[in-house]
Amino acid sequence: MNTSPCQSPSHLTRRSLLRGASTAGISWLTPLGDLLAVEAETAPQGKPARSVILLWLGGAASQLDTFDPHPTTKIGGGVKTIPTAIKGVEFVTGLEQTASVMQDVSLIRSMVSKEGDHERAFYNIKTGYRPDPTLIHPSIGAIVCHELPEAKIEIPTHVSILPNQWPARGGFFGAQFDAFQMYDPKFPVPDVKARVEDKRMDRRLESLSVVERAFAQGRAPDMDQTRTLHQVSMQRARNMMTSDQLNAFNVSDVPAKELNAYGDTPFGRGCLVAVRLIQAGVRCVEVTLNGWDTHANNFEGQATQVKILDAAYASLIRDLKKRGLLESTIVVCGGEFGRTPKINNVGGRDHWPHGFSMLVAGGGFAGGRVIGSTDPEGVKKEPENPVFVEDLHATVQDLLGIDSSKEVMTPIGRPMALSKGDVVEELKA
Amino acid sequence: MNFAPPSSSWLLRLRNAVILAGIGTGAVWGVVELLRPPVGKVSSEVGLPKAKLEDVLQAAQKVNADFDQTWAQKQMQPTVKADDLTLVRRLSLALTGSIPSLQEIRALESVKGVDITQWWLTQLFADRRASDYLAERLVRVYVGIENGPFLIYRRRRLVEWLSEALQKNRPYDQIARALIDSKGVWTTSPEVNFITVTNENKKGPDEAKLAARVSRAFLGVQMDCVQCHDGKLGSTWKQTDFHKLAAYFGQTDFVLTGLRDDPKQNYKFRYLGKKEEELVPAMVPWKPELLPEKGTPRARLADWVTAKENKSFARTLVNRMWALLFNRPLITPVDDIPLEGPFPAGMEALADDLIAHDFDLQRLIRVIAATRVFQQSSRSTDPSHPVTEEAEKAWAAFPVTRLRPEQMAGSVIQASSLSTIDAETHVLFRIKRDLDVANFVKRYGDSGEDSFEDAGGTIPQRLLLMNGNMISNNTSSNPLINASTRIGMLAPDNATAVEAAYLSIFTRRPTVAEEDHFTGLLATVKSNNSRSNAMSDLYWTLMNATEFSWNH
User: Fold this and answer.
1) Beta-sheet pairing, A338-339 with B252-255
2) Is residue B455's pLDDT more than 80?
3) Disulfide-capable partner of B181 in B200, B269, B302, B510 (CB 3.0 to 4.6 Å)?
4) What is the reported pLDDT for A51?
5) Residues of chain B contacting A14 with CB distance shorter than 8 Å
6) How far apart are the first and last CA of chain B?
7) Looking at residue B487, what is its pLDDT?
8) B540 contacts in A (CB within 8 Å)?
9) Above 90 in pLDDT, residue B374?
């Protein structure tokens, strides 16, 4: 066996090849014409998106028990379904609120990853690249912040709420592009509050300038500005500590009705804060909802998480729309892979990277479309019209006005494209 | 059973006596610990026979001569020699991941008339902290930091095995051979984990990954770039070169009894542009004449990689150890060394010495540490000609580099204790230390594999240092544990208190301006509580300074 970590964009056109192959085959689901026949396509035209919200369903949500149910087949697991705002498309019960906002959301039912291990798949879904022993790729949020710098904001432009063990990283762009991590917004943001009163802090900073002067002797006068960034980043950290924009992290002043709409769960509060951060000018926010890794008791486990997701996701879409932010904000929601059609001996579903579901909305993504389909019998692995993880990345970058084929020089001296995927035109408004 | 309870007054008197005795002993012991801590039996011997020491210094002279020539050509004036405490700090950070303790500083200041760098290295080589830390750094090179496949991968065991080998100063070629040609079960033969980490989806070892690891970790070449196609951008490597190297792992297989070689197996690959997979013969990418005629494919590869005539192996280790000691490799990237040169000053002299001394890793570290480059100051003594980045790049000054997250965490914890935190420290304290370091690294940002990025500081890092739990817990008022409070309580005067804090955190004494500033602040306090806060502020200030976060 061997794996192929080739990063060269020169021979990475298998999506176009496979797309051709799949459309040439017999489709067992909705014809393309029907897929595009949606009721509400208010596609935003004009300016590219400026920010991204990523909702990670950590552990891998089951496509069959969420957005791609096959209730009448052996693999369906007896779930019940409901209609959605997209004609002919059904979700499992429990996703009623999400179903009602689907006119603003498109559904990919044919996501394909080449990674079946949580850690590797998370790396893949966050960076668009497979893990490589030689370097760490930047996550999509780091790419957005690197390519679309935002000077005016005083808080970090890349934020990870409720991160699991693999928060978004700056990779070869550097640790300054790592996501700023915070946990349940019910609690204060870590490390932004000084431990001593202002007067004492002023005294500390005054002392610090004495120490810095001693260190600077015999060194280049611009060393801090051009290399260490120590005092520069400390000043920015101080600005953040006293910035009004910090209020975006705080949900204590949010009316109970609004909080309850999101479900009043850590994930719901995280989604609410994500909206507030985007409004404050943050480029990328990821919010993680773990608990989908249902190798046993799949149906119970998925239903529990579905309930949390439904209120939070639908409220987030509605809220962005109400605040006039949906057109400029891309929202991606999904897990690192899907779950097997086969139900195992303990009522669970295992890892399935071959055809899983993702929701995409806002920022130039079309609303109300469905891309791809999976085999209702669960026999055929490959989905129709596959969308590879890297293709989703290329599409997101394209909608942000970032040229995904642009090559950047990595620290190991190897030029690398921001994404090696192809833009999925069908997803664009 | 019936017991007559002792009277409450009797109990109270006993309790008070115990407390008073404890406080008295603690106070006396504390002052001793601060000013003259127990330093054990310190030998003033370097720990090397005189002839060997002279041989090390001669080898360093050859390296110095190389650099002298380079600087002369570039018309650069190297900086002056750094003081002993700075050198000790650099060595401790490189080899233990932490700064020296006040206890260690007092010990080395009691040693007179020896080469302090070589003396300190002798202490460090005998210290399990050093072999553990070096093992962790090298294991990152071999297998990365990910957890790897469940059940058949035990990263911790691999680190322990390597630490043991480094402690015994096992020749490095033997270590490399053991990793490449390992057999058995991953628990009882920990070196096997070098192979098992590549097992994915239960399909057996990944030949391509192993070829990439071997070429980078032991040969200093990035051949995996040609895994999918022939080299571009000036690279002359062919796709076939890489896969022929991978084919040496084609017979490697997992069975119930562990890792083994199965002659019935082979390696197949479909090259770019070809329609079919083809059997790939095993062949090394250069100097095939060094391959032994007999043996399993892996055994032959291991012998070829580590052959003395295959100088890439020695250069790779030189570059890696140079990077460890300077936080910056001699050749960047650390695992991309040209086969035929040109090589920078120092490389060939060090590689030749390493080969001539049978891949003695400890000797290599001693030689590098004895060079003028390592012992130079990172700053200029001439204010009108400060050190420039160009001077650092030419190694005419010791480069200023950012400390790794675990070095930061280790240093915060060590600086907060007057005595050394090592294998002798109570196990509960060491467990707490490990947990604290892990939490800090997670939030500070793990640098991943053994990379040497030169990025600046970040906002979350500054927030963590200014307001985070680790700094707060380790610098706040706590007379039982924290050095800041204890120094404030026990130092006979303010100048001694400031000096002890500077030695504990910066491994140096304060400048006149710094001493005046901080003694002035301490002089204004009117209560014990205020003094404790002032000491806490002093600790906070030093730990938030550039000097603490950057190696220099």
Assistant:
1) unpaired
2) no
3) B302
4) 97
5) none
6) 68
7) 93
8) 204
9) yes
Is the Cβ–Cβ distance between A58 and A335 less than 8 Å?
yes
Chain A residue numbers touching B336 (CB-CB < 8 A): 412-413
Ranges for all domains in chain A classified under CATH 3.40.720 = 14-179+284-427
Least confident of A169-173, A323-327, B222-226, B493-497: B222-226
Q: What band does B70 get if pLDDT is binned at 50, 70 and 90?
A: very high
Q: In one letter, which amino acid is A60? A: A
Distance from CA of A157 to the nearest CA of B (A): 11
Cβ neighbours around B474 below 10 Å, total: 23
Does A133 sit within 8 Å of B209, measured CB to CB? yes
Complex ipTM, two decimals?
A: 0.88
Task: Answer whether A2 sits within 8 Å of B208, measured CB to CB.
Answer: yes
CB B44 within 8 A of CB B112: yes
Q: What confidence score (pLDDT) does residue A18 get?
A: 42
Interface test with B, best of A118, A207, A235, A240 (most B CBs within 10 A): A207
Nearest chain A residue to B383, by CA: A218
A284 CA: distance to closest CA in chain B (Å): 16
- Cβ contact (<8 Å) for B400 and A219? yes
Q: How confident is the model at residue B504 (pLDDT cuts 50, 70, 90)?
A: very high
Using a CB-CB cut-off of 8 Å, the residues of chain A touching B83 are none
pLDDT exceeds 50 at position B506: yes
Nearest CB among A215, A224, A237 relative to B466 is that of A237
Residue B439 has pLDDT above 70, yes or no: yes
* Sequence ranges of the domains in chain B: 148-306, 401-551
> pLDDT digit string (tens) for A60-81?
999 999 999 999 999 999 999 9
**Per the structure block, which two tokens stand in for B217?**
């970790």
Interchain CB distance below 8 Å, A5 and B224: yes
Residue B43 pLDDT: 64
B382 CB neighbours in chain A (<8 A) are 218
pLDDT at A6: 41
Chain B closest-CA separation from residue A156 CA (Å) = 8
Q: Which chain A residue shows the shortest CA-CA distance from B451? A: A135
Question: Number of residue pairs across A and B with CB atoms under 8 Å?
Answer: 207
* For range B389-398, the mean pLDDT: 93
Nearest to B542 among A176, A203, A211 (CB): A211
* Residue ranges of chain A with per-residue pLDDT less than 70: 1-46, 133-134
Torsion of CA A139, A145, A146, A148, to 10 degrees: 130
- What is the rounded CA–CA span in Å between residue B539 and residue B475? 6
Q: Tell me if B416 sits within 8 A of B406, measured CB to CB.
A: no
